[in-house]
Amino acid sequence: MEIEMRFFANFRDAVGQKTLVREFEGATVGDLLDDLAAEYPEIDLFEDDGSLRDFLTIMRGGKDIAHQQGLDTPIADGDTVSVFPPVAGGSPAEV
Which residues are within 8 A (CB) of 15 and not within 5 positions of it... i.e. 6 or more apart? Predict the structure, then answer.
């Protein structure tokens, strides 16, 4: 099946492009992220116990996998999976 992956901020830098379109034979978002982490080890997606790092946002079809089945969220031909790093920063509000 063909999957489009979109990357943002430092993940885009690590992959070297904003979008990858790949043939993929796995069944879940977790399978896809495992393959991605193996190919791009500088993308630090997982904790030592295999869980997704805190504050990462992974979306399948525009919906956060945290509100679907997590890493067990199934993927299908033509899906788009977006990988967002933790977001921090900004300036304090003026009082």
Answer: 7, 40, 43
